[in-house]
Design a protein that fits this description.
10 domains, mainly beta, four-stranded mixed β-sheet, Immunoglobulin-like, flat
């Protein structure tokens, strides 16, 4: 819906927001110079003056402050309640907080990009007076919104430009609580600073100098490099290792556009790398140590290294070092070779072992016996009588018959001064003799053969575990009849190389089997749900109570298959006559038969009545549908019916549907449940359409509003309908200034029938602007201020009144309001000396802003004044005992004045501004006669009011 607003309620200029009221009291506060801080402002009430009555703060019944935070002309208020329950409100101005922003001066080189402009807040702005959160928000918003720009102009060296606030940023809109002043900064254009810097260079001692280079930095183009003239880099002489300065000379150090400075560089001569390598030497254990030597690479010209020392820290002083490697190191005095960085690589003295021979002696044993002691001989030791340390004699693993290598080794680290050559020997293991005896065994006829066993005497034992023969094969003579059969043993010689085996045969006995054998036959079964297709069960399971009886002896004759489609039980037909025992060795065999079965169960389904819907007034259906959730395609169910126990015209609501027949004859299905449902009678839609209507501003509303009803069934009626329009007597405009309307809505005296859903389409009521021309009189008001010696500025005040005429047919309640006027002139008037300063109101500055009127003309009846005297506004509202404030009333063409001040002047003006009565007040309460009825402006002293005389 379009939002509607009364456009006549437009704000008039803030300068004219306070009209002097007849019953106004003066509320005096402690401070009129109040500034925004972000906190609630609570000036003290010093006193309240109502005519001759004064009230101190302690006399007041209550003092209540408004929000009093944001800046504005009437942003602050204080409401006091007097002891006599009279309530007086004082509005006052809250001034914006003054903030001064200082833009920092800066400079840039000619042709360079503008720098980032910076600013600070003048410390005299006293921002610490702001509430903490308000200060943080202000600083954040100011930083976000402030923009600084540069004034226009051509850039030249030495020229300056103003740095100003971006005019597109409206501080008044962004920061209404602050009066922000931005002090302009300056940007100065300077010559471009160019730096010619020598590039650091280096070389290694002995090399030739590289070409010296330089770089030019600054806002200068390569095409302008020649403006600097000749540029020559040079270095201080010297060829020894060290650092030498590189200077740069520039022919033109300053030009019209550039100022040049130079930056020196460093020329470094680094040490030349030299490598000293100590030579490796070697000797055999016990020989004399040879002399140490070295080689040098990398020296320049005829240079030689000085202060070179070779040493071996771990060598023996006697020259008898043990076998191993010994580091030979070199040290070089750095001070004796300043132009070189010497890298030394040590050498190695290698002492190699002396050769010696070790010979192991031969040995033998029988398989299973312990090893004999092993011995060895040594030849080639250095000292006579010397023995080798920590010998370890080992032989090849194995205890089987054969030949095994026997060798000797020595513990790690022992005899390190010798290289030993070992000649190994052998240990021979001979075969052991054993006897294998087969064990006699027996079984029943028809049983499986028992495990054949044997025992062995004479086997070797290792670590408490007796040895075993491998690949021993036992076999008996073939035959299953009762009797004795020979069991023989064969032993694989290759698998038992450690033994010489002697074997002794055993016997195998078979006795007849008379046990009862029971064979169980169980036909296969299956239970399925009917699905309209043929189902099959076939086969059976066969078991025996004897492990020795083979089921292959059982012969079957017959057909082990059963099939079916419809629900029911189907037998396979298995019997003992179909099975026969074919083994003559098992005469005592019986058969236990369980027949196979196919069971087809009926299919379970749910039958559900289908819901149905009609609208109130429709005919009631006589047939209703139902569905079965699992009925197979092609199958049918009979004897099922859904019914409704109601007939005729049905009211809106739900009616149960039930099954009055539940006897299907199809045996392949079983109904698990019958689910009921409902017939829903929906409400019928009735539309009430309200007709649009209109009137002219100031005219009465139509006597009644019209409407049309559609959708009612003949004979039905709606309750009594009351039509009313949205309240308001002004011409409406929407938020976009387009013509708008008031809503015409309807209400029922009682709830409509539940059989109907009533939709009301609202009508639109249009108030048209008043078509006749009207004339409005402007009455300026006097503002009295006390003389201070300084300039006083006040807001201009005025009132308006509609001037009766033959063309104006508006009744008294449709008068013209000051809210309908927008004043476009200068809002204030100022003065310094005690005098009367006319406000200078001009009808050309008044504009009608009310959409209620199309043709409005203004006439100035009375101009207002700023009156500066030695009394001020406190005497402007006189009072006498029993009368609160100045006020007017009328009767029989007489204006009755109350609460005036004796000695003040009075005047009565008509709507054209003419004075019809004037004089001096001689009593607080008096009457002023007028000739004609009408609207008059009455001024008594500095108080003024408008009144209609009948």
């Amino acid at each position: 819906m379009i939002k509607k607003i009364a456009m006549f309620a437009l704000a008039v200029s803030a300068a004219f927001s306070n009209a002097v009221a007849a019953d106004e009291c003066s509320v005096l506060i402690s401070d009129d110079d109040l500034t925004f801080t972000g906190n609630q402002i609570k000036p003290s009430v010093t006193k309240v003056v109502c005519g001759d009555d004064e009230y101190a703060e302690s006399d007041l019944a209550s003092v209540v402050y408004g929000k009093n935070i944001n800046a504005g002309t009437d942003a602050g208020s204080v409401t006091v309640t007097l002891p006599n329950d009279v309530v007086v409100t004082k509005t006052f101005r809250i001034y914006p907080k003054g903030v001064r922003i200082l833009v920092d001066d800066t400079e840039k080189e000619l042709g360079a990009e503008n720098p980032e402009f910076t600013w600070t807040i003048d410390e005299n702005s006293a921002l610490d007076e702001l509430q903490a959160d308000t200060l943080v928000k202000f600083q954040k918003d100011l930083k976000k919104n402030i923009k600084l720009v540069l004034s226009d102009g051509d850039e030249q060296v030495g020229s300056t430009f103003d740095i100003i606030k971006d005019p597109s940023v409206n501080f008044l809109e962004l920061f209404p609580n602050y009066n922000i002043i931005v002090k302009t900064g300056k940007l100065t254009i300077t010559k471009t600073k160019v730096v010619v810097a020598a590039v650091d260079a280096n070389k290694v001692y002995g090399e030739t100098d590289p070409k010296l280079e330089y770089v030019i930095t600054g806002n200068i183009k390569k095409a302008d490099y020649d403006k600097l003239g000749e540029i020559l880099p040079s270095r201080v002489d010297g060829e020894k290792v060290g650092s030498y300065d590189i200077e740069v000379s520039v022919e033109n150090m300053e030009t019209e556009d550039y100022i040049v400075s130079t930056s020196p560089g460093k020329f470094t001569i680094s040490q030349a790398p030299v490598s000293l390598t100590v030579d490796d030497v070697s000797k055999i254990y016990g020989e004399a140590t040879p002399e140490f030597t070295y080689k040098v690479t990398g020296l320049i010209g005829e240079d030689v290294l000085s202060g070179v020392t070779l040493s071996c820290a771990k060598c023996s002083s006697t020259g008898l070092e043990n076998v191993g490697e010994y580091d030979i190191t070199a040290s070089v005095k750095a001070a004796s070779n300043p132009n070189y960085a010497v890298t030394t690589t040590g050498g190695t003295l290698t002492v190699t072992p002396k050769a010696a021979k070790v010979t192991v002696n031969k040995a033998e044993k029988t398989y299973g016996d312990k090893d004999p002691d092993f011995t060895f001989d040594v030849d080639g030791l250095v000292s006579e009588g010397e023995e080798l340390e920590l010998p370890i004699i080992t032989r090849a693993e194995g205890e089987n018959v054969g030949t095994y290598k026997v060798s000797v080794s020595f513990a790690e680290g022992s005899n390190s001064n010798y290289t030993l050559t070992v000649t190994p020997s052998t240990l021979t293991i001979k075969q052991k003799e054993v006897t294998l005896t087969v064990t006699d065994v027996f079984k029943k006829f028809g049983e499986k053969d028992p495990e054949l066993e044997y025992t062995v005497e004479g086997l070797a034992t290792f670590d408490g575990v007796e040895d075993v023969l491998k690949d021993v094969a036992l076999s008996r003579e073939p035959g299953e009849d009762a009797g004795l059969y020979t069991i023989t043993a064969t032993v694989d010689e290759e698998s038992n190389p450690n033994y010489i085996v002697t074997t002794i045969d055993g016997s195998f006995g078979i006795t007849a089997n008379e046990d009862k054998i029971v064979v169980t036959i169980k036909g296969h079964t299956d239970t399925v749900e009917y699905n309209g297709k043929e189902r099959i069960v076939q086969g059976f399971d066969i078991t025996s109570n004897s492990e020795v009886y083979s089921l292959s002896y059982v012969k079957y004759t017959g057909d082990s298959v059963v099939s079916g489609t419809d629900a029911g039980k189907y037998l396979m037909g298995l019997s003992a006559s179909n099975f026969k025992n074919t083994s003559v060795n098992y005469p005592n065999v019986t058969f236990n038969i369980t027949d196979g079965v196919l069971l087809v169960k009926p299919r379970s389904l749910v039958v559900t009545a289908l819901a149905d819907t009609i609208t109130y007034g429709d005919a009631t259906p006589t047939e209703f549908k139902w569905v079965a959730d699992s009925l197979l395609e092609g199958d049918e169910l009979d004897n099922i019916h859904v019914s409704l126990d109601k007939t005729g015209l049905l009211d809106a609501g739900d009616y149960p549907l039930t099954f009055d027949a539940q006897s299907p004859t199809n045996g392949n299905y079983v109904v698990s449940s019958y689910e009921t449902n409902s017939l829903t009678v929906q409400q019928k839609v009735v539309t009430v359409k309200i007709a649009d209507a209109q009137k002219v501003y100031g005219d009465p509303d139509p006597a009644s509003f019209l409407y049309e009803v559609t959708g009612l069934i003949e004979g039905d009626e709606l309750p009594v309908l009351t039509l009313a329009r949205e309240a308001g007597e002004n011409v409406l405009k929407d938020v976009d200034g387009e013509d708008s309307t008031y809503r015409i809505s309807a209400t029922f005296a009682s709830e409509p029938s539940a059989n109907y859903k009533v939709k009301i389409r609202q009508g639109n009521f249009t108030i048209l602007p008043y078509p006749n021309k009207i004339t409005v009189a402007i009455f300026g008001e006097d503002v009295v201020m006390k003389y201070t010696g300084e300039e006083i500025t006040v807001d201009k005040k005025f009132d308006v009144a509609l001037i009766p005429s033959l063309d104006c047919t508006l009744s008294a309640e449709y008068t013209y309001s000051k809210d309908f006027v927008a004043y476009k002139g200068e809002p204030t008037v100022s003065g310094t000396e005690m005098s009367i300063y006319p406000m200078g109101l001009d009808v050309a500055d008044f504009v009608n802003v009310s959409p209620n009127f199309q043709y409005v003309s203004f006439v100035l009846s009375i101009d207002g004044n700023l009156v500066i005297d030695d009394k001020g506004p406190e005497i402007s509202l006189a009072a006498v005992k029993g009368v609160k404030t100045f006020r007017l009333s009328s009767m029989n063409r007489r204006i009755q004045v109350s609460g005036s001040k004796v000695g003040e002047r009075y005047s009565v003006h008509d709507m054209k501004g003419r004075v019809v009565r004037s004089g001096v007040v001689d009593a607080a309460n008096f009457e002023i006669p007028v000739t004609n009825a009408g609207v008059y402006m009455v001024r008594v002293g500095s108080s003024a009011a408008r009144i209609r005389v009948k």
